[in-house]
Amino acid sequence: MISIRHQPNTNILETTAVGTLEQADYDRMLPEARKLIAQYGKVRWYFEMEDFDGWTAGTAWRDLKFDVQHLTDFEKIAVVGKKNWMDWATTLMKPFTTAEVKHFDLEEQAAARSWIAA
Q: Which of 24, 26, 47, 95 is the 20 to 30 Å CA partner of 18?
């Protein structure tokens, strides 16, 4: 499941993933990301993973296609979560974006939000 928030009057998209991400999660998230890209050109993404189990196979493919289509549309990506997921997710993202990608421990939420906003 994913929760999606947009900070008004900013190019910052915040998502929190819990459990396994499925097609329905992407049906909600991708239109919001595309709307912000259209509005601001570049988006900053705060991606928090809490008790995160990963993606279903079809959803992982959909994520990869979105990343390739929007290779240059993200300015910064803060990956927030447990150390093992952060390292994996950050490494996985880097070839598919020109964004600055940085990972933070789950306890560093405030620092991650400050970094993404700066």
A: 95
Element (DSSP H or E) covering residue 101? strand 100-105
Strand blocks (E) in 56-99:
74-81
CA distance 52 to 23: 16
Q: What is the spatial distance between Cα 71 and Cα 94, in angstroms, rounded to a whole number? A: 10
Please report the pLDDT score of residue 96 as a whole number: 67
- Cβ neighbors of 11 (< 8 A, separation 6 or more) are 36, 39, 40, 41, 42, 43, 44, 75
* Residues 47/78, Cβ–Cβ less than 8 Å: yes
Token pair recorded at residue 29: 């998230």
Q: Which domains does the chain have, with CATH numbers?
A: 2-117 (3.40.50)
Cα dist from 87 to 24, 38, 92, whole Å: 26, 30, 8
* pLDDT, tens digit (0-9, with 9 covering 90-100), for 30-45: 899 999 999 999 999 9
